[in-house]
Amino acid sequence: MKILITGATGFLGRRVCDVLSQAGHTLVALSRDPQRAKQLVPQLTEVFGWDALAQALQGCDAVVHLAGETVVGRWTDAKKKAIRDSRVLSTRELVNALAQLSIRPKVLISASAIGYYGNRGEEPLTEDSSPGSDFLAQVCQDWESEAARAESLGIRVVRLRIGLLLGPGGGALQAILPLFKLGLGGPLGLGNQFWSWVHRDDVVGAIAFALERDELRGPVNMTAPNPVRQREFAQVLGRVLRRPAVLLTPAFALKIVLGEFASELLSSKRVLPQRLHQLGYRFRFAELEPALREILRVP
Questions:
Q1: pLDDT digits (tens, 9 = 90+) for 206-215
Q2: How large is the C-alpha radius of gyration of the chain?
Q3: 77-99 helix and 135-148 helix, angle to the nearest 10 degrees
Q4: Is 260 helix (H, G, I), strand (E, B) or coil?
Q5: What span, in angstroms and rounded, lies between the C-alpha atoms of 261 and 270?
Q6: Cα–Cα distance list, 35 to 31, 39, 71 (Å)
Q7: Would residue 124 be called left, alpha or beta, if left means φ above 0 and alpha means ψ between -120 and 50 degrees?
Q8: For residue 172, what pLDDT is reported?
Q9: Residue-range definition of the domain harbouring residue 202
Q10: Domain assignment of residue 157, yes or no
C-alpha cells in the first residue's frame, strides 16, 4: 500500500514507519518540519508540509493519523489548547482534505486515547462503554468525532484508543524510570487505580492488523488484555530493575508538582481490548513483566 502517516517523528510514529516499511509499504508523511522528518525517519519516500495536504493524499491507499501534542507535563491554559488543537483541528483539516479527493483512501486509522473514558474506578471498560466528562475525555470525544466524519465519505475509520504506551527510549516509562533506578519509585497516591498499559510493538501490530482487516472499524481499545493496579505496576518495575519500589508519592504532592495533569496519573481506567480479541488479534505482550523486561533489556 501507499500510506500517509502523520506524527511520523513521534515515539510511536517512528516505530510504525520502521515496521510498515519492512512489510513493503510505501510511506509518505505530513510534518510541520518536513526536512527534520526526512532526517529522523529515512523510511519515508516523501514528506509534505501540512500546506500541501491535498498533494500528500494523492494516490494513498490508507492514512495513519498519529499527530498530537504530548499530554505529559503541567497543564497550563496554553498546554491544554495545544493538546486539543493538535488533535481536533488537525483531524478536521485531514478529513476536509479527504472530502475533496475524487479517489479516496480505503481506510483512516486515527489515534485516540483511553482518556475517552475518564476516571471509572473498578468498572471494566469496553468499546461500548460511555465516555467520561473531564478535559481529556472531552478532547477524545471531539477528536474521534472529527475522524468519524470520514465514514460518510465511504472510508473505513478505525479509532484506536491507546493506553499507557510503553516502549524503549520514550513513552510513559521514560518519565518514571530515573526515580525507580534510584530506588525512589513506588505507588502514586494509594496505588489502587488501574493502569491500562500497552507495549508499543502491539500498537504497531494492531495498526498493521487494522490495515488488512476490513471488518475492523469504529472504536478499538488499544490496551494489553491484563491491566494492573498502579501499585502492582510499581512493584513489577521495581522487581525487573532489582530496586525497591515502596516509596509512596501522596496525591497532594503530585497535584502540587503537576497540577491538573496529576489527576490523569491518579485516575483509574480498567480498559479491555474487546474488539481486537473478537477478531483474533494476538498480543505479543499480554503480561506486564515480560513487556518491561523486553523494553529494559533485562533477562
A1: 999 999 999 9
A2: 19
A3: 10
A4: helix
A5: 19
A6: 9, 6, 25
A7: beta
A8: 85
A9: 2-169+197-223+272-281
A10: yes
Structurally, how many domains does the chain consist of? 1
Main-chain phi, psi angles of 41, to 5 degrees: -125, 85
pLDDT of residue 258: 87
Query: What one-character-per-residue DSSP string does 117-180 give?
Result: G---TT-EE-TTSPP--SHHHHHHHHHHHHHHGGGGGT-EEEEEEE-EEEETTEHHHHHHHHHH
CATH number at residue 158: 3.40.50.720
Rounded Cα gap, residues 92 and 8, in angstroms: 18
Residue 284 · residue 225 · CB < 8 Å: no
Nearest to 194 by CA among 100, 124, 250, 140: 124
Q: Which of 50-59, 68-77, 120-129 has the lowest mean pLDDT?
A: 68-77
- Smallest CA-to-CA distance from 267 within 196, 206, 170, 165 is with 196
Residue 251 belongs to some domain of the structure: no
CA dihedral 260→266→267→270, nearest 10 degrees, is 150
The kind and range of the H/E element at 5 are: strand 2-6
Report the C-alpha gap between 286 and 269 in whole angstroms. Answer: 17
Judged by DSSP in three states, 51 sits in: helix
pLDDT band at 73 (very low <50, low <70, confident <90, very high): confident
Entry pTM: 0.96
Which among 122, 116, 191, 119 is positioned nearest to 161, based on CA atoms? 116
The confidence score (pLDDT) of residue 175 equals 82
Residue 36's pLDDT is what?
Answer: 95
> What are 126-177's pLDDT values in tens digits?
999 999 999 999 999 999 999 999 999 999 999 999 999 999 998 889 888 9
Mean pLDDT of the chain: 96
Percent of the chain with pLDDT over 90: 93
Q: Is 110 inside any structural domain?
A: yes
On whether residue 174 sits in a domain, the answer given is: no
